[in-house]
Amino acid sequence: MSALADLPLIASGKVREMYDLGTPPALGSAALLMVASDRISTYDAVHPTPIPDKGKVLTGLSVFWFAETAEIVPNHMLSMSDGVPEEARGRALAVRRLQMLPVECVVRGYITGSGWKDYQATGTVSGVSLPAGLSESEQLPEPIFTPSTKADEGHDEAIDFDRAAELVGDRALMERVRDSSIELYSFAADHASRRGVILADTKFEFGLDESGELVLGDEVLTPDSSRYWPADGFEVGRSQPSFDKQYVRDWAASSGWDKKPPAPSIPEEVVAGTRARYVEAYELITGEPFQAWLERSGAA
C-alpha cells in the first residue's frame, strides 16, 4: 500500500487534499484519495492551530450520509479502506473521478447568514422571492435552491438559477441538480430533526461520471458544509449557536485580529470547545459514539 507522501498530489485547499490513487486492483477503477485535514479557517485564512479529530468527524459524517442517501442520487465514494494509506485511515476516502460541475449547490430551509442579509436588502435570495416579514432564523415555507459560483480565491458569489444553468451549459441537467439538492436536503433535515438537530442550510457539489451520470461528490452534510443548530433552545429572531467553526469565528472576531492573513493561533480552550462541538454533531446525527467510527475505519 502506498504511503500518503508517495501519492501524486492533485489539489490542496484550506481543509482538504486530493491525491491520485491510479487504479488500485481492489477498486477496479480510476480513483482519487480525498483527505480531510484538521485545519480550520475563518475569514478565508487558515489558523496555525489544528482542531484534533476534525477531519475524522467530517469523513465519518460523509460516509454516514453517503450510505443514507445513495438511493436518492449516486455518490462518488468507493471505499474507506481499499486504497487508503494506513496513516490516513478515518480521515480519507477513495472516491471516483468525476467531471465536477462549476457551481455550488446551496439549499436553505431557514433564513440566516448571507441569505438573511440578502433578504433584508432585497426581499429575495439568489433571485428567489420570499414572503415579507420573515425574522432571522425563521423556517422558510419550503426549502429554496440558491446556487453560487466556485471561487478559486475569496468568497463564492451567489447567483440565480438561470446563471447557474448558463455556467453548467445544460438547463435540463441543472434542473436535475436543483431537484436532487432539495430532495437530499429534505431527507437529511427530517433525519436531523428526529435527532434533535436543525439542518438550517447545506451545500452540495455534483459531477458527471464517465457515462454522463449525475453523481454527488465532495464531502456531504458535514458541519463544514452545513449549518446545524441544536433544536433545544432554538428561537426565531436571533442568530443560533451551531455545530461548526462558529465558536472559532466568534473568538477570532473578538480577538483584535484584523481578519487578514496570517491568522492567529487559537487558544487551547477554544480548540477543545470546537472539537467537542464537532464530535457532538457526529454523535447526535449518526446515533453512535465517535469512537465507533474510529474503530470501524481503522483509525483507533
Describe the overall structure:
It contains 7 helices and 16 strands. It is globular, with a radius of gyration of 19 Å. With 300 residues, it is an alpha+beta fold. It has 2 domains: 1-97, 2-Layer Sandwich (Phosphorylase Kinase, domain 1); 99-243, ATP-grasp fold, B domain (D-amino Acid Aminotransferase, Chain A, domain 1), CATH 3.30.470.20. The two termini are 19 Å apart. 31% of the residues lie in helices and 24% in strands. A hairpin with an 8-residue loop joins strand 2 and strand 3 (31-36). The strands form 4 sheets. Strands 8, 9, 12, 13, 14, 15 and 16 form a 7-stranded antiparallel beta sheet that branches. The chain has a 5-stranded antiparallel beta sheet with strand order 1-2-3-7-6. A two-stranded antiparallel sheet has the order 4-5.
Question: In summary, what is this structure?
Answer:
By secondary structure, the protein is an alpha+beta fold.
